[in-house]
Write a structure and sequence with these properties.
Helices cover about 50% and strands about 15% of the residues. With about 375 residues, it is an alpha/beta fold. It has 3 domains: about 5-95, Helix Hairpins (Orthogonal Bundle); about 110-245, NAD(P)-binding Rossmann-like Domain (Rossmann fold, 3-Layer(aba) Sandwich); about 275-360, Alpha-Beta Plaits. It has a 6-stranded parallel β-sheet with strand order 3-2-1-4-5-6, with helices on both faces. Strands 7-10-8-9 form a 4-stranded antiparallel β-sheet, covered by helices on one side. Strand 2, helix 5 and strand 3 (about 170-175) form a beta-alpha-beta unit. Helix 1 runs antiparallel to helix 3, helix 4 runs parallel beside helix 5 and helix 9 crosses helix 10.
């Protein structure tokens, strides 16, 4: 729980208690003529109802002051303490619902809780990402948080994944209607890198994507829709990538029926928890592959890390109605050069992933547009 949030809620009753104590000390010093030290001591003993009796009022004014204080203090302090307790509980409840928001930066938004977003969340956790999840159903909060803890706990048992998996504090879970601006403000979307919109309602997905583009134009937005005909609408609205899980699932089923080993390989590459993974690395001055031809880079990468260079993605001029900014070329011509601003596409086993990241010296993934 954020201490600052609790203090913002409880400062008034605390101020009331402090004011009463200040009046008490001042009154004792003025009416009884005691020292400041004795006034402070007398105030604490009287307000705590201990009453040792070593310092007592000896004149009518101080006696009247003490009686008035005794009658009023119990009720006021009791009310103030009760108020502080209530507000602290409210703050804890608000935190459990994610209503205090997050200050994360460079994180991924996962909006909606469906089988698609569940699978996406697992992959993001295994990649060590910071993630903000929002659901519209309060009862699902009790499912999401244990799921996050379970994925992290299982990954920490694997020596190959232990150092890469996200921590529980890297995941923020909130209750809210992500198709409304006020709810999205809780997720600090101005500092987010990308958003995955995957509710079970296509209309809400479209609305959410449009609001995200308006509030945070820099976001890379991926939307999962059930109706394939919405793809053109969302692409025209500026969505980075639109996927139809049913369409993708159909292709995988067909592949598994005719080329099962290819389907298994594809499943392996798209799941970080299996033996191999595919990543993209920006070609810049830090990347040792920058400036090499594909024919030069392939053996160099293989020898240094054991990973395979399988393709290159090059920027292409913007085209009307298209949000695809890079042209992907798998197994390009040997003379294709990896230039500054390109992305190298690399397949690596999990056991050699650390060596790959150390050697290539740039983090995997797309940089912020």
């Amino acid at each position: 729980m954020r201490i600052s949030r609790v203090l913002r809620l409880v400062w008034r009753p605390i101020a009331v208690i402090a004011a009463i104590y200040g009046v008490t000390v001042t009154g004792f010093i003025w009416s009884q003529g005691v020292s400041i030290y004795n006034g402070i001591y007398w105030g604490i003993i009287t307000m705590s109802t201990v009453g040792y009796g070593d310092i007592v009022p000896t004149n009518p004014v101080s006696k009247a002051f003490t009686m008035g204080l005794a009658l009023s203090t119990i009720g006021v302090i009791g009310y103030s303490v009760s108020t502080v307790t209530t507000l602290a509980l409210q703050a804890r409840e608000a935190e459990s619902l994610g209503l205090d928001g997050t200050r994360m930066k460079g994180h991924t938004l996962v909006l909606g809780w469906t089988p698609v977003s569940r699978a996406a969340l697992q992959e993001l956790l295994l990649q060590g990402r910071k993630i903000a999840v929002m659901t519209r159903q309060q009862e699902l909060l009790a499912e999401i948080r244990p799921y996050v803890a379970s994925v992290i706990r299982m990954a920490q048992k694997d020596p190959q994944q232990r150092q890469r998996v996200s921590r529980e504090e890297d995941v923020f879970v909130a209750l809210g209607d992500y198709s409304e601006r006020g709810a999205l403000d809780l997720l600090n979307i101005s500092e987010a890198r990308e958003a995955i919109v995957a509710s079970s309602d296509d209309s809400r997905n479209v609305m959410t994507a449009l609001i995200l583009k308006e509030l945070a134009p820099h976001l890379r937005i991926v939307v999962a829709v059930l109706r394939e005909e919405l793809r053109k609408t969302l692409n025209a609205a500026g969505v980075t990538y639109v996927i139809s899980p049913s369409d993708l699932g159909g292709r995988m089923v067909s592949m598994a029926a005719t080329e099962p080993e290819v389907a298994l390989a594809f499943d392996d590459l798209t799941t970080t928890s299996y033996g191999s993974t595919m990543e993209q690395f920006l070609c810049n001055e830090k990347n040792p592959l920058t400036g090499m031809t594909f024919d030069e880079a392939f053996p160099r990468l293989r020898k240094a890390t054991g990973a395979l260079l399988v393709g290159v993605a090059k920027p292409r001029p913007p085209e009307m109605g298209s949000r695809i900014r890079f042209q992907v070329d798998l197994d390009p011509s040997p003379q294709v050069r990896l230039e500054n601003g390109d992305y190298a596409l690399v397949i690596s086993s999990l056991r050699s992933l650390d060596a790959l990241h150390q050697w290539i010296r740039v983090p995997p993934g797309r940089t912020r547009d």
